[in-house]
Write a structure and sequence with these properties.
By secondary structure, the chain is an alpha+beta fold. The chain has a single domain, classed as Creatinase/methionine aminopeptidase superfamily (Creatine Amidinohydrolase), CATH 3.90.230. It has helices at about 5-30, 35-50, 125-140, 150-160, and strands spanning about 55, 75, 80, 95-105, 110-115, 165, 175, 180-185, 205, 210, 215-220, 225-230, 235, 240-245, 245-250. The radius of gyration is 17 Å and the shape is globular.
């Protein structure tokens, strides 16, 4: 069931969104060569809790045969698309690192991800990141009352494929709010005019995941980490977005001075 939020509920989600965004900004500044993904995870948990939130991902139930997720963030380097478990991996100069953060505050979830460059990265990697970020905002621009989910999906797909990359089809965005995963699902490919109708008060986690090579994926033995099947680089960008009568409103932008 699709859940629409009131203005008061959107304001509550915005507060959690500011913490999420500020946490990601802090992590982007901390993701320097030699830092482990476990280090970043501990920084994130401390940051979220110190601002009154709860790390939504920590203890999140796994699928069949998978353990509950042990980290406060997902940290996915290079050819890992999403759901990387933080640990001993030390990021190196030239890596790209996707970091996904979820914060629960006041009973609402905010969800956002960014792919960071570690030090100096290749021109090809930089172009991948720029394309994925642009695809995110192309999708957000279509999150308007009266459109359908397919308008978001098609906008993402068109920009990605015109740039020579592939969209991961096995993974999708989703509604978000009282729960981490709500209806509707939001694929990053599709046709305008198809799918559920977008209405004011809906809140969506729009999240392009794009690869340099094949769209095929491989799930690691840990039952969480998901890689590109051919070992090519992958990028992931995500915002929590509210559909409003005035147009799309991004709830996970860092505008409040939370870094301290």
């Amino acid at each position: 069931m699709i859940v629409r939020k009131s203005k008061a509920e959107l304001a509550a989600m915005r507060e959690g969104g500011e913490i999420t965004a500020a946490c990601l900004r802090m992590l982007s500044e901390s993701a320097k060569p030699g830092v482990t993904t476990g280090d970043l995870d501990r920084m994130a948990e401390d940051f979220i809790r110190s601002h009154g939130g709860t790390p939504e991902f920590k203890g999140y139930p796994g699928g069949p045969g998978a353990p509950d997720f042990p980290g406060s963030i997902c940290a996915s380097p290079n050819d890992m698309i999403v759901h990387g478990i933080p640990g001993d991996y030390a990021v190196a100069e030239g890596d790209i690192l996707s970091v996904d953060v979820g914060v629960t505050l006041g009973g609402f979830v905010a969800d956002s991800a960014w792919t960071f460059p570690v030090g100096e990265i290749s021109d090809d990697a930089e172009r991948l990141l720029q394309t994925c970020e642009a695809a995110l905002f192309a999708g957000i621009d279509q999150a308007r009352a009266g459109n359908r989910v397919g308008h978001i999906s098609a906008a993402v797909q068109a920009l990605v494929e015109e740039s020579g990359y592939t969209v991961v089809r096995a993974l999708v965005g989703h509604g978000v709010g009282r729960s981490m995963h709500e209806e509707p699902q939001i694929p990053n490919f599709g046709e305008p005019g198809r799918g559920p109708l977008l209405q004011s008060g809906m809140t969506l986690a729009i999240e392009p995941m794009i690869n340099v090579g094949t769209a095929d994926i491989v799930i690691d033995d840990d039952k969480w980490s998901i890689y590109t099947a051919d070992g090519s680089l992958s990028a992931h960008f995500e915002h929590t977005v509210a559909v409003t009568e005035e147009g799309p409103r991004v709830l996970t932008l860092a505008e409040a001075p939370l870094l301290r």
